[in-house]
């Protein structure tokens, strides 16, 4: 059985107030095409389907189109809610949709919802464990909640039968190894009561995780975060996004293949003086990449007039401008506050100057300041 695993679609997400819906439409189409090309037998969406509990109308329409494509192609879809989703809204009409091959697990229930599909080796049972706050299950920690939910399962986890789990918790390795995070998981608490050890999932042929946006394997078994299909922050500019194609053979036979995704627009970080970033050489070198989502770090020390407007004339999708001098100033602010008492007036002024200008006082200016400070202190 061929299983396509994705998660953290965050449909409707905005970055820097800009709608990503076009990029999402493009990437979801690509996921659909991969499923068809690879002849996937089922598609798993492991939570955070939408970005918010009450999604925008365009987000709802996009998910509707995405799911309809699969159902028309007779590829079943199994979907659970993540911490960003509203369980009730995600599960709308789920009992009707099941008859057409769309299985949705929204709300927490015990025993967990299961879906059984068959191939030439027999049945494969998919266990749906949507995100839930531990307190709702009557527990203090996510780990206890997960153990309780697993204990009520009508399945045996001795590895003799093929069982696949879909879930959306902060799953760590057996020794507490934490997954590598991105900048776009807005609500991950590392090392807290949210941790769930991958060791709890022994016996599952494959565990399809959502929650962490960087695709990765965690723990000792076949436990994988599919990662988000798109980069949702500039911190992810150098990460590649993908979906997992999982092939289950006889019990015990599992292969996992990462299939890379190619976005409509990349996330690109550029750095330099405003004039240089606008120069013909740089623009020619970038070519079509000028249309990417751009984060520009400007190294100019003098005041700039409307840098974002200027950049936008050649980088239409510039989203963020960082001024290097301000970043340096922020770093120094704390330090100078702490040591202020011990420093001379001239030294303090020197720091103040550097904070504003982004460069230290030169020798000539330093002498002038020292002279002025001495005169003032003698008064
Ligand atoms: Mn997420």
Structure, explained:
The protein is α/β, with parallel strands linked by helices and 379 residues long. The chain folds into two domains: 2-260, Purple Acid Phosphatase, chain A, domain 2; 267-324, no CATH class. Helix content is 30%, strand content 24%. It has eleven helices and 19 strands. It has helices spanning 21-37, 57-72, 87-90, 94-97, 142-151, 274-277, 280-286, 307-312, 324-339, 345-357, 363-378; strands at 2-6, 14-15, 18-19, 42-46, 77-80, 102-105, 113-119, 122-129, 162-167, 170-172, 195-197, 206-209, 216-217, 223-225, 242-248, 254-260, 267-272, 293-298, 318-323. It has a six-stranded mixed beta sheet with strand order 6-5-4-1-15-16. Strands 7-8-9-12-14-13 form a six-stranded mixed beta sheet, with no helix packed on it. Strand 15 (242-248) and strand 16 form a beta hairpin. Helix 9 (324-339) packs antiparallel against helix 10 and helix 10 (345-357) crosses helix 11. The longest helix is centred in the first third of the chain and has 17 residues, at 21-37. It is elongated, with a radius of gyration of 26 Å. The model has no long low-confidence stretch (mean pLDDT 91). The chain binds manganese (II) ion. Manganese (II) ion binds at residues 8, 10, 48, 82, 84, 185, 211. The site of manganese (II) ion has 7 residues, from loops.
Short description:
By secondary structure, the chain is α/β, with parallel strands linked by helices. It has 11 helices and 19 strands.
What labels would you give this structure?
alpha/beta; 11 helices; elongated; six-stranded mixed beta sheet; 2 domains; Purple Acid Phosphatase, chain A, domain 2; 30% helix; 24% strand; binds manganese (II) ion; 379 residues
